[in-house]
């Protein structure tokens, strides 16, 4: 298990729709907070179904909330969006992304964590796979243990597409806030493992058990994903 630095909160909702609404408010509220604090809001978005679950940020009736609290305050010019350079090889794309991250630190867009010394994002929005992978850090791949680099890559991801780049845990766990957005019954067993209520299936703690945020890690679960948690959990 991660040496938990910040708080850990588990939120359970009746449906994925309710998760989506809560996630929109959570994101808009954090945007309000960080914009007030420092005039910027830095967010990392993982792939997968999370992107669809973010829909309420831009759908009515949440749209007004999201507009007032998020989109109007951080109209995101395309120059502020850092997509992966998929014209490069995985190795090249990882090096390119790492170089861009270092430039954001040099230009003071991203601070360094006073705890870890790694670049510190305000918010990371992450999903989790049934094997307990987070971002593209997979249980069976050594790069999950990378402790120096900011961005690494694999060419044989167990989840397609095979070539991927990913933030490493030193960067992920330096974030102020992390939302683990997990919905669906097929993830219920791994949620139980991730929250420390059940031993990992093969005795090796999967990446999801290593996630921690410097301020708060918040799990957004629907009823199905939370179905294995003890009722008091
Ligand atoms: O696939 C990606 O882009 C993400 O890096 C990966 O970590 C994803 O968040 C999980 O695999 C959950 O994906 P689903 O929510 O689509 O199952």
From TrEMBL:
List the SUPFAM superfamilies. Answer: NagB/RpiA/CoA transferase-like
Per the UniProt entry, the Enzyme Commission number(s) are 3.1.1.31
Q: In which pathway does it act?
A: Carbohydrate degradation; pentose phosphate pathway
Q: Which reaction does it catalyse?
A: 6-phospho-D-glucono-1,5-lactone + H2O = 6-phospho-D-gluconate + H(+)
Q: Where is the Glucosamine/galactosamine-6-phosphate isomerase domain?
A: 62-219
Please state which protein family the record places this protein in. Belongs to the glucosamine/galactosamine-6-phosphate isomerase family. 6-phosphogluconolactonase subfamily.
Q: What is this protein called?
A: Probable 6-phosphogluconolactonase
List the source organism: Solanum tuberosum
Q: What is the lineage of its organism?
A: Eukaryota, Viridiplantae, Streptophyta, Embryophyta, Tracheophyta
């Amino acid at each position: 298990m991660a040496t938990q630095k910040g708080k850990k909160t588990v939120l359970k909702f009746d449906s994925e729709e309710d998760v989506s609404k809560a996630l929109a408010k959570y994101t808009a509220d954090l945007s309000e907070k960080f914009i007030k604090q420092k005039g910027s809001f830095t967010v990392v978005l993982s792939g997968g179904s999370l992107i669809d679950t973010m829909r309420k940020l831009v759908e009515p009736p949440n749209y007004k909330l999201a507009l007032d609290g998020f989109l109007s305050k951080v109209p995101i010019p395309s120059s502020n969006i850092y997509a992966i350079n998929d014209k490069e090889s995985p190795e090249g794309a990882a090096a390119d992304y790492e170089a861009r991250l270092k430039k954001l630190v040099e230009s003071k867009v991203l601070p360094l964590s006073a705890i870890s010394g790694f670049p510190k994002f305000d918010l990371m929005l992450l999903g989790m796979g049934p094997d307990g992978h987070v971002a593209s850090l997979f249980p069976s791949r050594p790069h999950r243990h990378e402790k120096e680099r900011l961005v690494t890559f694999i060419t044989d991801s167990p989840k397609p597409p095979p070539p991927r780049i990913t933030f490493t845990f030193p960067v992920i766990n330096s974030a102020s806030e992390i939302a683990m957005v997990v919905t669906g019954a097929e993830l219920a067993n791994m949620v139980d493992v991730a929250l420390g209520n059940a031993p990992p299936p093969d005795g090796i703690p999967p990446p999801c058990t290593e996630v921690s945020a410097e301020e708060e890690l918040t799990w957004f679960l629907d009823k199905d994903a939370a179905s294995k948690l003890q009722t008091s959990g």
